Amino acid sequence: MTRVLINGATGQLSVRAAQLLSQQHDTIVVGRHPPAGPIGCAEWLTARLDRKQWLELLRTAAIETVVHFDLLGFNEALPDHETTVQHNVIGTMELLGACRAAGVRHIVARSHGWIYGASPLNPLLISEDRPIKTQHTRGLLRTLAEVEQIVADFAARHPQITVTLLRCVPILAPDDPVMQYLSSLSPQMLFGFDPMIQLLHVDDAAKAVLAAVDQSAGGAFNIAPEHPLPLSQVIRRLGRQPVPALGPLFNNQPPPGWPFEVDYLRYRCTIDPQRACRVLGWTADYEMTAALDALKPLTPEEEQQAAARALSEFLNRRRKA
Amino acid sequence: MNHDELDAAQTNEPVERRRPRRSRAQVVIEGVQESPVIDHPDADSADPSAAVDPPSAASASFTWDETATARRSAEQLFEVEIDIRQQSDQQSGPQAALGNFAAGVVRLIGENLQRMTGEQVERINAMLQGVDLRDYLDPDFWKGIGMVLRYQIDEQVNFIQRRLRGDYSTDPFGMDREIIEVARPFLSFMYHTWWRVTATGLEHVPAQGRGLLVANHSGVLPWDGAMIATAVFNEHPAQNERIVRSLHLHWFTTLPVIAPTLAALGQVPGLPENAIRLLERDELVCVFPEGLKGVGKLFKDRYKLARFGRGGFVQTALRAQAPLVPVAVVGAEEIYPMLANAEGIARLLGFPYFPLTPFFPWFGLLGVIPLPTRWSITFCPPIDTTEYGPDAADDPITVLALSEQVREIIQSTINQKLAERTSIF
């Protein structure tokens, strides 16, 4: 039983993680908006806290572990660069400072599996010891690389605090920008390219957060299903047909709606979850094909089976409680 | 119908298609050729029912073996096609034309069959039950053939629909077996007909488990990798259709269309991490240590091996404890005689080299057609790396010595093959 605080309540991942964490830990969810879904037995606080208030909250509630999800760009379209820097970079610095002053022992921060950058020189699966790309030009990764450096710096200076970075690949949830792009009516791909990509089921990502909180092992962890799929196959499995775009080959501008650099539509950036398997004991429950199929609407028979399963699970839980 | 044409069709095609599996094709021929000789001369003139009456040898030979692959069944169909052609050759007028057409249809079915699964082949077998495939004057023949053709078209449509739903599987590197099957007929054509490759020493290629093939690189475009893969896939004595994963220059990953095609065909960007990962998955990997210096070699330097990189391939083999199999390719040097390298244009286009051959770029895309030289591919006895242990990978002396050893084996094999060669074509 640890006292855990989750910062950031938007997005499927924080909701699922709050559900899982609150089953075993004393959990508080803090966010600017009310949580996007049911958060189990966690308590929640809707407020925009400043530095002093953070310190007060962390001290009073005697928080041991802070999970930092409050970064713009994971669950929404990115606002202008200045707002993003203010929120992601300065916000993270303030939180880290408050954690240090309040004596928090463990910080789990979310990062992105594509932080290494897409490149023709990438091996099949990238492991954590490959240096991250710091010169991203576009989207969420532009500030996230800075956040990662700040977090890594902080970890190096404060050895008494365990700092865990979870580099999750895009999550198969309707509010994820990549998912929104791929399930739009006619997602564009770069003509003549079909990189392999990884997408993570939200339950697997939440399980990784739980494992990180429980194991309190420091450092960066790649969180992804091991077997990537070609981008075109992912789009087709989502029930759409990819449309080849020629323009980006010449002007290097991403097709409209693509939230990252155009290189992610050209080269692979697939990551190796071996360290998470070894150290955190985490493995993906969903193969990518299974995770994609889970998004399909159910047939009436499947709906019945799912209902029966859900009911028995629910009753089991009731009996135990 | 022109008889010369028919003759030409008859003499060319069997030669072209029998080449791959001589031994197996011959077994089939023995079983099949008896039948037309025995009961067909009279069936020619008699009415169709007479030929159906005795349970004909042709349909009897069509009881598909449980383990028979679609390919083997297809070869039986090709034999039938030849028989029909022979038969129709003895006739004249519309019957000969019909026979010619029937032979063409049987061949088409056979070719489609090569891409089908065992289950689908069995269904076709059921449709053809009791149909004498050599008697094209029998209405039953056309009924059976019609059913099979419709079924095959349905399956093609299914195949395309399934692809469009994204319902297929790839390995983590993006290799897609279905795409390989689609590309195979073309590669086999290049192998047997265009370059008339003779492959020797295939027994030195491990039938199971990991192995690192090391080959000389030549010919401007990396056709040699494709041909080594075709040799192992088609002609390896174990006949288990192993796919050779060639490592290609990572520059190809930056080229549209080419990058995903190479990946689907099982080729992998040449990075040491990828090679180790492939070997650890017990795959057969092919490397060209000469790299760019090999493919971009000038015609005057042909068959002189360039430096073998920095021995990275030996390190990989030692780390993964995989045997090294030296491979010597002769004939690929002459497919595009590269007289000069236009470095200025290459730099402008961002290419590693820009070849000037007698045909390229003067004849445009026509200049990309390779010359039909005669090739030989020699697989040399493997070098065991287990005796050195994985730590030897960090010992430059062992690494460079092994690298040199492999290079010398390949060079001497090339020299020997060149001395034996009587003509380039």
Cα gyration radius of chain B (Å): 25 Å
In the predicted model, the low-confidence regions of chain A spanning at least 5 consecutive residues are: none
Helical region count of chain B? Answer: 16
Fraction of residues in β-strands of chain A: 5-15%
CATH topology of the largest domain in chain B: Glycerol-3-phosphate (1)-acyltransferase
- SSE arrangement of chain B, N to C: HHHHHHHHHEEHEHEHEHHEEHEEH
Structural class of chain B: alpha/beta
Largest sheet of chain A: 7 strands, parallel
Strand order of the largest sheet of chain B: 1-9-6-2-5-3-4
How much of the residues of chain B is beta strand, in percent?
5-15%
In the CATH hierarchy, the architecture of the domain at 3-175 and 198-226 and 268-288 in chain A is 3-Layer(aba) Sandwich
Per CATH, the superfamily of the largest domain in chain B is: Glycerol-3-phosphate (1)-acyltransferase
Class by SSE composition of chain A: alpha/beta
Number of strands of chain A: 11
Give the N-terminus to C-terminus distance of chain B in angstroms. 34 Å
From the alpha-carbon coordinates, what is the Rg of chain A to the nearest angstrom?
Answer: 20 Å
Q: Indicate the overall shape of chain B.
A: globular
Q: Strand order, biggest sheet of chain A?
A: 3-2-1-4-5-6-9
CATH class of the largest domain in chain B: Alpha Beta
Oligomer: heterodimer
